[in-house]
């Protein structure tokens, strides 16, 4: 099982994400944003959290136009898995691989704390190891996590069961409390919370580990 | 370009006293050029020269078997045992103030303060792993407080969060003595291999002096001088061009610097802080007993028509100066180009003991380097012992529950979540204890050992009795570490006081240092780095003496840390006298 | 050659920053501020002869997120 | 009544965002973009009869940080 993690010049959760992937049994390769191809045989691409380009202009905007973005899109088109927490989610929206956009938090402040999420959808490799409706504790740390999309898109996301996680209490103004969404083929997941920060007991919780394990199990089974 | 003539007014505007100017004339034997005057003023101001405090700082304990490098470099270095592969590691840490800039522009002032302290840590070869910030504001209902609190907290978070270092502790206090002078003290700690710490002493003649990082603008020209002056009504006029923090560039500068260090190309390195190019070049030369020649035409600039004076005094952020192994220049350049940062050879080390600055084909400064570095005046300022505090009026009887309510509802004792939640406390994935109780704890990556951090001082104790207040600050820091299950290792201090030219203020300083020194000796917590911020006064009224103590402890086995998993049925014990 | 690009959130997209500014102005005692929208103003110095179409491409591909934002070019 | 306020960083003040945008445009293949400055555009709907002086006060007190930013009002 092979994971590639994209590294943008300002990424700062790239190593954390690598640790989480390795913990679930993945071989991890870090891929520099100036590359135009991914290494062979990659099963999943991690688009890490952090401040890929300092959050300048719009969060994720510049990363979404970086040289590696084309290879990322191709990987998704081929049916590869992509996982983007936090800034990764913002980047995936900016590339158009996921619908909608992330605006400044409703309270305008950066928020870092652990929040309760409800697992809304277990029909995806990322969420298969959770129980439908399970409530999990996962840290958030963002300034722009206020998910927005036009009403039609929101209806589709709900109707197609693509809202993967929802906040139990919405901290940032996100539409319908949406914390994470899946692509149409359910192989691309973007979410504002950081499951990679909840993978070992020393971090204060392990509710995030099942996401990486679920993905690993899906790959083994395939 | 012709430089202005040297007049008494110009000398005074540089914060130099007439007798200090006489001293300059004695050293160089002629009238200085405008650029040279700027260089002297930068080197001799309180901020760079510690001219009022040096005598007393020397009395602090700075040694111990755990200390790898004490004060004098960008940050202190302390041994913390091996990593998972058996390499000995060190923690590199320091605390520094950015009080005056934060009062003028809270967001950018706090942000660049955070940036500066992070740079101090990675300049030594350590990857920053933890940050703290100790903040003192005026009364909550003072008209300026609200804006300062918002700006400062957002500025600290804006920088530390984007850079990617977890904020693990700090302090927030409100008191009338800070109405006109808020305090912003930023702490950072990093981890490095003990055998690859980088220092500032240059070595080898004819080696390239390399400029790294962001371009130079007119930011803060005059800023270092300002840190030595009291505020008054003319503050608007003294305002230098404000420095703007760029955490995105700093993050790249850190990655590039660490990558470069791993190639073996770096002979010595120094970050450009206050009076950037001047202080960093002089320090590298002086420590290595070499001269330096700078060619300012090669300095990357972002504004047109910058003069030598402006370049030498610019405080533009996110820059470093380095002496390079000439054989590795191409390799070094490639690393910086990878990270899209400026890399320019701007000079060389020379055998003669001179600091030569050339711009546009003209020599703008030619000064004796070691004398310039060591000649800063040192003052034994008069001081008087702080009189014993007035006896407090008896405390009126109060219902204990009411008293508790008003305590926890008061600005100084209420929960700090509203601040802490604006900081990323978990980035890097190794945060074990978040701010909330005592200090924060991180895991030393890949091991089961941890580092605990705390920042403490109680200014009213120091005001009442500087010696005892100084001791108390150290003791509180010690207790906070122990309460996490950590063995206290070492200390950094950030000494914030009023105008040292007043004997009463100087007395507070002398007393507090005495107390801090005694306590650090008794508790075996040597001081390995620190920073002094004087002249925290507005219209003649100074702050309460605020010597912030930052301390670091080691937890040998994280499974045995004290974790505060309080549950019903446990027994509460009160320890101590 | 100077180019100015104005980027605003589209109508109907909630603007948390504008809303906060409106609220703050009210708190500060400025009456009658009914709505505030906050956008970006980007001033560029581009090569002589840069075409309208090129600037438009910059907007579409980077400067604006056309899912939520509209833009206006002044050359 | 519509009011527009443009807020830009003063000359000489570092604009990290503008610089990042300039660099990104170059990487994306847009040649000749020499400088980019990013500011704010604030569109307000204020009560009929709001004076110039009032809007100026809003700018000084909230909309612009006059330490580092300058502003321009269009009413
Ligand atoms: N500015 C700040 N930044 C980060 N953490 C802070 C800040 N101010 C206070 N804290 C944290 O909040 C908690 C409570 O603060 P305080 O009451 O000063 O601490 P203590 O437990 O040391 O008495 C501590 O964990 C402290 O580190």
Automatic annotation (TrEMBL), chain A:
InterPro entries registered for this protein in UniProt: Class_I_gatase-like, PRibForGlyAmidine_synth_PurQ
Domain of life the protein comes from: Bacteria
Keyword annotations of the record: ATP-binding, Cytoplasm, Glutamine amidotransferase, Hydrolase, Ligase, Nucleotide-binding, Purine biosynthesis
GO molecular function: ATP binding; glutaminase activity; phosphoribosylformylglycinamidine synthase activity
Active site annotation, chain numbering: 86 (nucleophile), 194, 196
EC number: 6.3.5.3, 3.5.1.2
Single GO biological process annotation from the record: 'de novo' IMP biosynthetic process
Cellular component aspect of the GO annotation: cytoplasm
Catalytic activity, reaction form: L-glutamine + H2O = L-glutamate + NH4(+); N(2)-formyl-N(1)-(5-phospho-beta-D-ribosyl)glycinamide + L-glutamine + ATP + H2O = 2-formamido-N(1)-(5-O-phospho-beta-D-ribosyl)acetamidine + L-glutamate + ADP + phosphate + H(+)
Protein localization: Cytoplasm
Main localization, broad class: cytoplasm
Cross-referenced SMART domains: GATase_5
Pathway annotation from the record: Purine metabolism; IMP biosynthesis via de novo pathway; 5-amino-1-(5-phospho-D-ribosyl)imidazole from N(2)-formyl-N(1)-(5-phospho-D-ribosyl)glycinamide: step 1/2
Function: Part of the phosphoribosylformylglycinamidine synthase complex involved in the purines biosynthetic pathway. Catalyzes the ATP-dependent conversion of formylglycinamide ribonucleotide (FGAR) and glutamine to yield formylglycinamidine ribonucleotide (FGAM) and glutamate. The FGAM synthase complex is composed of three subunits. PurQ produces an ammonia molecule by converting glutamine to glutamate. PurL transfers the ammonia molecule to FGAR to form FGAM in an ATP-dependent manner.
NCBIfam families according to UniProt: FGAM_synth_I, PRK03619.1
Protein name in UniProt: Phosphoribosylformylglycinamidine synthase subunit PurQ
Organism: Jannaschia seosinensis
UniProtKB/TrEMBL annotation, chains C, D:
Chemical reaction(s) catalysed: N(2)-formyl-N(1)-(5-phospho-beta-D-ribosyl)glycinamide + L-glutamine + ATP + H2O = 2-formamido-N(1)-(5-O-phospho-beta-D-ribosyl)acetamidine + L-glutamate + ADP + phosphate + H(+)
GO cellular component: cytoplasm
Localization annotation: Cytoplasm
Enzyme Commission numbers on file: 6.3.5.3
One example GO MF annotation: phosphoribosylformylglycinamidine synthase activity
GO BP field: 'de novo' IMP biosynthetic process
Top-level lineage group: Bacteria
Signal peptide positions (record): none
Pathway participation: Purine metabolism; IMP biosynthesis via de novo pathway; 5-amino-1-(5-phospho-D-ribosyl)imidazole from N(2)-formyl-N(1)-(5-phospho-D-ribosyl)glycinamide: step 1/2
The entry's keywords: ATP-binding, Cytoplasm, Ligase, Nucleotide-binding, Purine biosynthesis
Similarity comment: family membership: Belongs to the PurS family.
Self-association and partners: Part of the FGAM synthase complex composed of 1 PurL, 1 PurQ and 2 PurS subunits.
HAMAP family xrefs: PurS
Role played: Part of the phosphoribosylformylglycinamidine synthase complex involved in the purines biosynthetic pathway. Catalyzes the ATP-dependent conversion of formylglycinamide ribonucleotide (FGAR) and glutamine to yield formylglycinamidine ribonucleotide (FGAM) and glutamate. The FGAM synthase complex is composed of three subunits. PurQ produces an ammonia molecule by converting glutamine to glutamate. PurL transfers the ammonia molecule to FGAR to form FGAM in an ATP-dependent manner.
UniProt-recorded name of the protein: Phosphoribosylformylglycinamidine synthase subunit PurS
Record organism: Jannaschia seosinensis
Gene label: purS
């Amino acid at each position: 099982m092979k994971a590639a993690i994209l590294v943008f010049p300002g990424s700062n959760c790239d190593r954390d994400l690598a640790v989480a992937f390795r913990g679930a049994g993945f071989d991890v390769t870090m891929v520099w944003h100036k590359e135009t191809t991914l290494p062979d045989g990659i099963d999943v691409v991690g688009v890490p959290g952090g401040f890929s380009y300092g959050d300048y202009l719009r969060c994720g905007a510049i990363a979404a136009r970086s040289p590696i973005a084309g290879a990322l899109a191709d990987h998704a088109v081929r049916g590869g898995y992509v996982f983007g927490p936090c800034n990764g989610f913002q980047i995936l929206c900016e590339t158009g691989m996921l619908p909608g956009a992330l605006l400044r938090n409703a309270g305008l402040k950066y928020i870092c704390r652990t929040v309760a999420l409800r697992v809304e959808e277990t029909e995806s490799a990322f969420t298969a190891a959770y129980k439908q409706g399970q409530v999990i504790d996962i840290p958030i740390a963002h300034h722009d996590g206020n998910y927005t999309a036009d009403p039609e898109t929101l209806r589709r996301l709900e109707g197609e069961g693509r809202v993967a996680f929802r906040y139990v209490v919405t901290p940032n103004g996100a539409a319908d409390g949406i914390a994470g969404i899946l692509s149409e083929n359910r192989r691309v997941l973007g979410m504002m919370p950081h499951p990679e920060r909840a993978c070992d007991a020393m971090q204060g919780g392990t509710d995030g580990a099942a996401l990486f394990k679920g993905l690993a199990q899906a790959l083994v089974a395939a | 370009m012709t430089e202005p003539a040297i007049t008494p007014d110009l000398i005074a505007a540089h914060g130099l006293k007439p007798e200090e100017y006489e001293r300059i004339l004695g050293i160089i034997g002629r009238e200085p050029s405008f650029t040279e005057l700027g260089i002297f003023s930068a080197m001799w101001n309180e901020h760079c020269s510690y001219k009022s405090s040096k005598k007393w700082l020397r009395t602090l304990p700075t040694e111990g078997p755990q200390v790898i490098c004490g004060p004098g470099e960008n940050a202190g270095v302390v041994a913390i045992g091996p990593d998972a592969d058996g390499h000995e590691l060190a923690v590199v840490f320091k605390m520094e103030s950015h009080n005056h800039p934060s009062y003028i522009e809270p967001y950018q002032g706090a942000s660049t303060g955070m940036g500066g302290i992070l740079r101090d840590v990675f300049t030594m070869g350590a990857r920053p792993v933890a940050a703290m910030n100790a903040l003192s504001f005026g009364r909550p209902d003072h008209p300026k407080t609200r804006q300062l609190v918002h700006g400062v907290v957002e500025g600290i978070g804006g920088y530390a969060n984007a850079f990617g270092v977890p904020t693990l502790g700090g302090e927030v206090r409100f008191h009338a003595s800070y109405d006109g002078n808020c305090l912003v003290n930023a702490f950072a700690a990093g981890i490095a291999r003990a055998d690859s710490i980088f220092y500032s002493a240059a070595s080898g003649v004819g080696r390239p002096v390399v400029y790294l990082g962001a371009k130079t603008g007119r930011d803060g020209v005059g800023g270092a001088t300002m840190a030595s002056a009291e505020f008054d009504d003319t503050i608007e006029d003294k305002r230098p061009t404000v420095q703007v923090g760029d955490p995105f560039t700093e993050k790249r500068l850190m990655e590039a610097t660490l990558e470069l260090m791993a190639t073996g190309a770096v002979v010595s390195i120094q970050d450009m802080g206050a009076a950037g190019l001047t202080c960093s070049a002089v320090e590298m030369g002086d420590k290595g007993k070499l001269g330096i020649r700078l060619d300012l035409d090669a300095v990357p600039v972002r504004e047109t028509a910058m003069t030598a004076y402006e370049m030498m005094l610019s405080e533009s952020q996110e820059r470093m100066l380095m002496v390079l192994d000439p054989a590795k220049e191409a390799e070094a350049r490639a690393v910086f180009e990878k990270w899209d940062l400026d890399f320019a050879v701007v000079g060389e080390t020379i055998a003669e003991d001179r600091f030569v600055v050339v711009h546009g084909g003209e020599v703008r400064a030619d000064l004796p380097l070691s004398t310039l570095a060591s000649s800063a005046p040192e003052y034994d300022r008069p001081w008087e012992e702080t009189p014993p505090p007035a006896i407090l009026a008896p405390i009126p009887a109060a219902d204990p529950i009411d008293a508790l309510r008003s305590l926890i509802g008061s600005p100084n004792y209420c929960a700090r979540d509203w601040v802490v939640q604006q900081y990323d406390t978990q980035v890097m994935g190794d945060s074990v204890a978040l701010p909330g109780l005592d200090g924060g704890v991180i895991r030393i990556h890949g091991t089961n050992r941890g580092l605990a951090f705390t920042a403490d001082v109680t200014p009213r104790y120091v005001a009442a009795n500087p010696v005892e207040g100084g001791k108390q600050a150290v003791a509180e820091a010690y207790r906070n570490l122990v309460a996490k299950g950590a063995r206290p290792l070492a200390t950094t201090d950030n000494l914030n006081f009023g105008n040292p030219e007043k004997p009463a203020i100087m007395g507070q300083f002398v007393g507090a240092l005495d107390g801090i020194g005694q306590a650090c000796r008794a508790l075996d917590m040597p001081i390995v780095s620190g920073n002094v911020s004087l002249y925290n006064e507005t219209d003649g009224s100074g702050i309460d003496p605020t010597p912030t103590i930052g301390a670091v402890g080691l937890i040998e086995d994280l499974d045995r840390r004290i974790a505060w998993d309080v549950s019903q049925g446990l027994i509460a014990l009160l320890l101590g006298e | 050659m100077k180019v100015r690009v104005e980027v605003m959130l589209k109508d109907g997209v909630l603007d948390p920053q504008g809303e906060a500014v409106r609220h703050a102005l009210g708190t500060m005692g400025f009456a009658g501020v009914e709505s505030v929208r906050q956008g970006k103003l980007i001033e560029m110095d581009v090569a002589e002869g840069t075409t309208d179409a090129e600037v438009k491409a910059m907007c579409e591909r980077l400067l604006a997120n056309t899912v939520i934002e509209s833009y206006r070019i002044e050359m």
